[in-house]
Amino acid sequence: MNDKLMASSGGKCELCGRQAEVAVYRLPPDDRRGNDVVVCQSLIAQIEGSEPLKPDDWRFLPEAMWSEIPAVQVLAWRMLNRLKGEAWAAEALDVLYLDDQTLEWAKAAGEQSEPVEAIVHKDANGNVLNNGDSVVLTKTLDVKGSSLSAKLGTVVRNIRLVEDNPQQIEGRVDGQLIVILTRYLRKQH
Asked: PhnA protein N-terminal proteobacterial domain location, by residue (predicted)?
């Protein structure tokens, strides 16, 4: 069965169309016929939740969702739902049409709980921030509870991400540890 599927897909990922290292992914629930899809190995880890979901890796979904293969439609619908916080994914979901039976299958994900979305911290320009990065303040900020004023252009080195809030980082300005909103930062390259 897998050889037939690989042959019909031409050895390409049925989602993104790339000729990469591919594998057969079985969509839950397992009791359906025709629930196998040929997918890039790099995407399977994100589908299964063993790696954090990276929205930019899924920009092809608005095209893949129009596949004639129901299993591809279902997988595209499920991934778009997980990414619906991204404007492009929400727009794609708004125009995606699935017949009643396929939509029912898509909603019967077989997943008992929603996968945990990875919290991603981004600067004012949309660049992803990581622990240890250096950033530049894009606005002069008055620090609450202090006479300190963090000036525009101040470089904050070795930042720490606030784990439960993607809009905040911690950094030292003039020797004082402060919380800074990411919308007032630009990542230093």
From this structure: 4-48
